[in-house]
Amino acid sequence: MSENKDPHVGHVAQSVEGVKFVYDFTEGNKDLKDLLGGKGANLAEMTNLGLPVPPGFTITTEACKVYLDSGDEPAALRDEVSAHLDALETKMGKKLGQADDPLLVSVRSGAKFSMPGMMDTVLNIGLSDKSVQGLAKQAGDDRFAWDSYRRLIQMFGKTVLGVDGDLFEEALDKAKEAKKVTVDTDLEAADLKKLVTAFKKIVKKEAGRDFPQDPREQMDLAIKAVFDSWNGDRAKLYRRQERIPHDLGTAVNVCSMVFGNLGPDSGTGVAFTRDPASGHQGVYGDYLQNAQGEDVVAGIRNTVPLAELESIDKKSYDQLMQIMETLENHYKDLCDIEFTIERGQLWMLQTRVGKRTAGAAFRIATQLVDQGLIDEAEALQRVNGAQLAQLMFPRFDEDAKVQQVGRGIAASPGAAVGKAVFDSYTAVKWSRSGEKVILVRRETNPDDLDGMIAAEGILTSRGGKTSHAAVVARGMGKTCVCGAEELEVDTKRRRMTVPGGHVVEEGDLISIDGSSGKVYLGEVPVVPSPVVEYFEGRMHAGANDADELVEAVHRIMAFADRKRRLRVRANADNAEDALRARRFGAQGIGLCRTEHMFLGDRRELVERLILADTEAEREESLKALLPLQKQDFVELFSAMDGLPVTIRLLDPPLHEFLPDITELSVRVALAESRQEPHENELRLLQAVHRLHEQNPMLGLRGVRLGLVIPGLFTMQVRAIAEAAAERKNAKGDPRAEIMIPLVGTVQELEIVREEADQVVAEVEAATGTQLKLAIGTMIELPRAALTAGQIAEAAEFFSFGTNDLTQTVWGFSRDDVEASFFTAYLEKGIFGVSPFETIDKDGVGSLVKLAAEAGRATRPDLKLGVCGEHGGDPESVHFFHEVGLDYVSCSPFRIPVARLEAGRAATQSEGSDHR
After folding, report:
1. What sequence ranges are listed for the domain PEP-utilising enzyme mobile (predicted)?
2. Rounded average pLDDT over 360-384
């Protein structure tokens, strides 16, 4: 072990082989979040800014990783903690847990990414049967000291020793009942002293040991408990939900205690430099007199708006407003702040870049540009596609007849409708059965996380914008209404009583509006969001709140469009979808699935084609289909005039166009038993049996159909060519691209291409029109990706069909596996997210990159795109930008999301290049 004297902190900093596990608040800064966690890095930053931060130190995430990997803390950690504790005691002029005037500390978690309430915190460490007397004497307040002691035993018992927290709550409720009071602040010192005795008995019985009286043992056990909480069930669930890596670990912050429960001139609160729900500037937050921090976050006692602090403590209020302005200008973003006032002295306990709703994110980004704090490129990084998608969700129809039964705080926007459920278990159970539910609670706590994820929205009768429910819901983009006080929630009887006496039983439909805080009985109809109306061209920027949001979206989208390299096309199969896609900003069609054109009235023609016994019969069926197909393409080319339209030739197995085998067998059997004519049904049944495959997605489909069914693909190519010629002769600008599906070898493509080129030449001769029809293929089989260099010799473009490529690379049948075992894989951490939702970069992505490079090595001007579901996934869009594709294609509704993310990907690349 070596000792390094640090001149900045004036104490001995212990290290082993250059690895340092503990940093004083004076040593770090906001850029050390990987090492110190978000909380520790920001406490250090505020300390460096000269703000009033209680002294303390941070144990690094590296120490946590060693602990989690080995099951024990690093050998050097105890000595480093001792050195920093000694320095802290010297600075404070008192020792941890000493009998006469004890130093007390908090032990708080702090990961790199904010995980509100998901990991553990213990306050008031250092209190014991002896030191509580000294704290009472020093503070001149017996009640405060015994209240602090009961809080320590309660938090320590639950967090460190694993005692059921409900046992402490029940004892607290009994104490209030005995005193005939409703809030814990009405309990006197003698009551709290008895409660401490009751709490210690609970610990002894449930944990099998006494509550520790040694303050250092308390601190060491609390540090290990925080480390352990990184792998707690709720923390792992939250990380999966938020896609936070599991290997980061958490830092631990040991901070000298300041007390908000020292009487009416003390208190605690949470503040935002802007409204996290709307983005508007003003005074936003909650304050609670005579309380400690967990009282605010838990929502157990109703707070007052932060603005009321001005009349309660003008000096602290003015100082807080000045600090908030300092922090926002320093971080150049919305800041979320925790503070405590101890007998008129303001202390800053935490700051971080605050979570915000989707609408607030867009508004704040443009506001900060206007204030000159950030540029447009940074504004683009402050929003994301998931937030934009949220803004496109429908909202409640304000003109509908509704029965409003309550109103709370608009904590997280959206329009949520579902059946009321009163516990997390039921929310998950009903949701898995396909029911839409609203989780109704007095207040939520971290144990409710799985139910919050499962629910359409969250409704609580207590808490404010800084409560657990509000913070977590905003982070997840989940609709939430908090603090609807007039609603009486009875979780034991599974019901909610609303003003007027009406009772909402579990299973009754309710609607909640996270934008207004209103609660309604029954199902309220929804209307399109103003953002969708903007993309549709039906709304423009103006003066009202919705128009402000539209203006913010418009500005950021315009910048994204200027910056992005990736073009964005649509998956669209008809003119109506194509026109809508174009309004949403599509730059062409990347996938037109022609099989959708063969359904409905045309199914009979397909059946005749399949049943054809002679070449003449087959030709007759194809001849009947040709003009119908041609008209489909004329309409598409008209809707997308001047833009590329990629048309995929028939892809699925032919048996999909025939009746169900079981249903048809029954019809034939019934006809035979009744001796009724059934020749056609019998022929159909024979065809179904002939075409039936055990694994149809790996059978006779795609290019294989075109090679086995003579004339099928040539009919489609002729329809495309004739439609393009007709459109061109009408002074249009058709840009057709013919895509051959499921190619696994270049020979397949060469045969189909030769036939297609011949058909196109015939149409050109017949119409006197020169056509430029690009012919390419889908890369959706591993072999196609691996032999892309060869295939590029016959293809003018590749479109990666990442849905099928994911199925074939993983050996998954999407229709089966998502329902059967994906949930287990996600819960066990095998997947961070479904590979059908976000591209598997290591497997599927490697094949895409390989094929792109090999294809362009053969044909440098090869056009590359993607048309699977991943084309509209934000994270996947960034990958496609990185590997050099030319465009992504997605459903019309996802086009704005893809445009935004393509712009973000481009600006991120520029930033990396500049660095």
Report:
1. 435-517
2. 96
DSSP state of 19: B
Residue 109: helix, strand or coil by DSSP?
A: strand
CA distance linking residue 53 with residue 42, whole number of Å? 11
Q: Is the pLDDT confidence value at 834 over 90?
A: no
Supply the residues annotated as catalytic: 468, 867
Q: Tally helices (H) and strands (E) across the chain.
A: 36, 33
Instruction: Estimate the share of the chain in helix, then strand, then coil, as percent rounded to the nearest 5.
Output: 50, 20, 30
Report which of 546, 535, 382 is spatially closest to residue 893, judged by C-alpha positions: 535
Q: Average pLDDT over the chain, rounded to whole?
A: 89
Chain segment 438-465, per-residue pLDDT in tens? 999 988 877 788 898 899 999 999 877 7
pLDDT range class, residue 221, cuts 50, 70, 90: very high
pLDDT at 684: 75
> From start to end of 373-449, where are the E strands?
395-396, 403-407, 409-412, 415-421, 437-441
Considering only CA atoms, which of 302, 294, 373, 280 is closest in space to residue 331?
A: 373
Closest CA to 298 of 462, 74, 438, 441: 462
Cα–Cα distance measured from residue 405 to residue 521, given in angstroms and rounded to the nearest whole number: 7
> What pLDDT sits at residue 211?
97
Burial of 893 (0-12, 13-18, 19+ CB in 10 A): middle
Left, alpha or beta for 858 (phi > 0: left; psi -120 to 50: alpha)? alpha
CB 95 within 8 A of CB 89: yes
**Locus of tokens 């892309």:** 788
What single DSSP character describes residue 873?
Answer: -
Q: What pLDDT does residue 446 have? A: 72
Whether residue 224 contacts residue 93, with contact meaning beta carbons closer than 8 Å, is answered with no
Going by pLDDT thresholds of 50, 70 and 90, the confidence category of residue 582 is very high
- Overall size of the chain counted in residues: 915
